[in-house]
Every structure is written in C-alpha cells, then in structure tokens.
UniProtKB/TrEMBL annotation:
Active-site residues, record numbering mapped to chain: K65 (proton acceptor)
Biological role stated in the UniProt entry: Involved in the biosynthesis of the chorismate, which leads to the biosynthesis of aromatic amino acids. Catalyzes the reversible NADPH linked reduction of 3-dehydroshikimate (DHSA) to yield shikimate (SA).
PANTHER family cross-referenced by the UniProt entry: BIFUNCTIONAL 3-DEHYDROQUINATE DEHYDRATASE_SHIKIMATE DEHYDROGENASE, CHLOROPLASTIC, SHIKIMATE DEHYDROGENASE
Assembly information from the UniProt record: Homodimer.
EC number: 1.1.1.25
Residue intervals of the Shikimate dehydrogenase substrate binding N-terminal domain: 6-88
GO biological process: amino acid biosynthetic process; aromatic amino acid family biosynthetic process; chorismate biosynthetic process; shikimate metabolic process
Domain Quinate/shikimate 5-dehydrogenase/glutamyl-tRNA reductase residue range list: 123-186
Pathway this chain belongs to: Metabolic intermediate biosynthesis; chorismate biosynthesis; chorismate from D-erythrose 4-phosphate and phosphoenolpyruvate: step 4/7
Gene name, Swiss-Prot/TrEMBL: aroE
Keyword NADP: yes
Binding annotation for shikimate: S14, K15, S16, T61, N86, D101, Y218, Q246
Name this protein carries in UniProt: Shikimate dehydrogenase (NADP(+))
C-alpha cells in the first residue's frame, strides 16, 4: 500500500485529506493519505521517516513550506523561484520538492476562463505573500508581459517585484484605479475577502471590458470582489478550483493515476468549507 501525507501545524483545517481521499476511493487505489500534525522542531525527524520509505510523498503546508526546502535532496527550479515547496515526491528515498500552487492557479483559470491568456493586456496581482509568488511565476510562464503587483505594504511589493522580473511593477493598493484600464486580468492573492471582507476603494468598472477577475480566497466562494466583478459583467473564476487543481500533480506522482477535478469533487469540498 502506498501512503501519502499532508504535514502542517496546525493541520486540522486542511482540505487535502478530503480531496485525495475522494480520489483514492473513486479510483479504487490501495493507498492512504493522512493529515499529520508536525511541529517545527519535529520536521527534520519526520522528513527522515519519509526518506526511509514509509511514504511515497505528501503535501507540506504552513509553517513548513520554506523550512522543508533545506531538508530535501532536490528542489525543482520553479519551487526555488517561488521560495516554497508544497509537494514532496519520494523517488526510492530521494526526496524531490515541487510547488504545484502555480500549476493549480493556471489550471483553474484555464478551466474557468478558457483563452484568458490570449487576451492581450496587463495583469493586476493584489498581495505580496507566498500565494502571490506562485501566481507571479504562473503569469510570467504564460508570457504576461506587464504585471502590476499592488500591496497594502508597498515595500513588500517592491522587494517581491525585484526578485521576479522587470515586467513586475510594484505599487500600492491606492494605484488600482490608475492601472485598471489597461488590465485584462485581476488576481487577488491577499487575504482580503476571507469571511466577506472587502477592498474599500477599487472601482472595478475601470478595468478593460474583457477582464477576467479571479480570487484565491474561496471562503466565501463568492467573495465581495467576485460579486462586484460579476455584477459589472466581468468573467469571474473562484478560488476553490486552485485548491483542487494544485492537488492533481502530487496525486499523479504518488499513485500513478491522473485524477479529475469534477463537479462532484467541487461540491464535496465546498460542503466541508
Ligand atoms: P500568503 O502566504 O497566504 O500569501 P501572507 O504572506 O500572510 O499570506 O500575505 C497576505 C497578503 O494579504 C499580504 O500581501 C498582506 O498585505 P501586507 O503585505 O501589507 O501585510 C495582504 N493583506 C492582509 N490583510 C489585508 C488587508 N486588510 N488589506 C490589504 N491587504 C491585506
């Protein structure tokens, strides 16, 4: 039997056991996926257990996504650029770290707004935390040549932009209305929207009329930002799909079958959110 895990501290809130457990059942795979609470001081010992073959791999969440990088045998270049590992694959004891958040972000947009990257225009990314790093990597990968990175704390946007590419232009949240007219994509990666909070001064009507608006927050599923965008006639993509799609590459690497992100899975995870 193949065993996989998600480690974090705390870990009780993780939706990953539900996602992977559903796929294991549906596909009839002899495998397990368990949530394991690992405190920071026990991370190295846990990784040793993985290296010894107890697991085929697993997911890594807060607070271990950065710290685990130093304990693995290899970290793929993209995960290194993003600065975080969320997926470990054990290849006969050799531990490889990957970051599948950026793949999840892109797959969710591809499914929810097909052709989005063919609409020429700039992107606006709100937030400068770990999620923003994965989103920036994804957008750069798709050739988006101008990205306005807006953050409440301007200095964080500036240092993140400097670490990425000259096409990433830092700004403050107050710059939104000025940069909006050229933007055909708006991505919220900040925690604004969780529990229904909202941005005070964004005039979404200023966005390019073809703009797609997406939020990585998925609780609530329709954040105030998405509700406003959809009321103004923009295409919107909610954040639940990113969570589901980021799980696909790990499952495929551990269990050898590529699982589907379908409506039944969405409904099951949504009901548990
Ligand atoms: P993550 O790794 O999930 O991206 P994070 O590193 O804590 O999380 O980043 C959260 C992001 O949400 C940051 O960009 C943060 O802005 P600051 O850099 O100014 O802290 C942003 N954020 C959180 N609460 C916010 C609020 N009330 N208004 C605007 N931005 C907010």
């Amino acid at each position: 039997m193949k065993n996989a895990f998600v480690i974090g501290h705390p870990i009780a809130h993780s939706k990953s056991p539900l996602i992977h457990g559903s796929w294991l059942d549906e596909l009839g795979i002899d495998g397990s996926y368990s949530a394991i609470d690992v405190a920071p001081e026990n991370l190295a010992a846990f990784i040793d257990r993985v290296r010894q073959g107890e697991f085929v791999g697993g997911n890594v969440t807060i607070p271990h996504k950065e710290a685990v990088m130093g304990l693995l045998d290899e970290v793929d270049p993209l995960a290194r650029t993003i600065g975080a590992v969320n997926t470990i694959v054990s290849e006969t004891g050799r531990l490889i770290g990957r970051n599948t958040d950026y793949l999840g972000f892109l797959a969710n947009l591809d499914q929810g707004a097909p052709g989005w990257s063919d609409i020429s225009g700039a992107a606006i990314v709100i937030g400068a935390g770990g999620a923003a790093r994965a989103v920036l990597a994804g957008l750069i990968d798709r050739g988006i040549d101008r990205i306005h990175l807006l953050n409440r704390t301007l200095s964080r946007a500036e240092s993140l932009a400097a670490a990425f590419a000259p096409s990433v232009v830092p700004g403050a949240l107050e710059d939104f209305n000025a940069v909006a007219p050229a933007a055909t994509l708006l991505v919220n990666t900040s925690s604004v929207g969780m529990g229904g909070t909202q941005f005070p001064d964004f005039d979404l009507a200023r966005l390019d009329g073809r703009a797609v608006v997406t939020d990585i927050v998925y609780a609530p599923l329709i954040t105030p930002l998405l509700a406003d965008a959809s009321a103004k006639g923009f295409s919107t993509v909610d954040g639940l799909g990113m969570l589901l799609h980021q799980a696909v590459p790990g499952f495929e690497a551990w269990f050898g079958v590529r699982p589907e992100v379908d409506a039944a899975l969405r409904a099951r995870v949504l009901a548990a959110t």
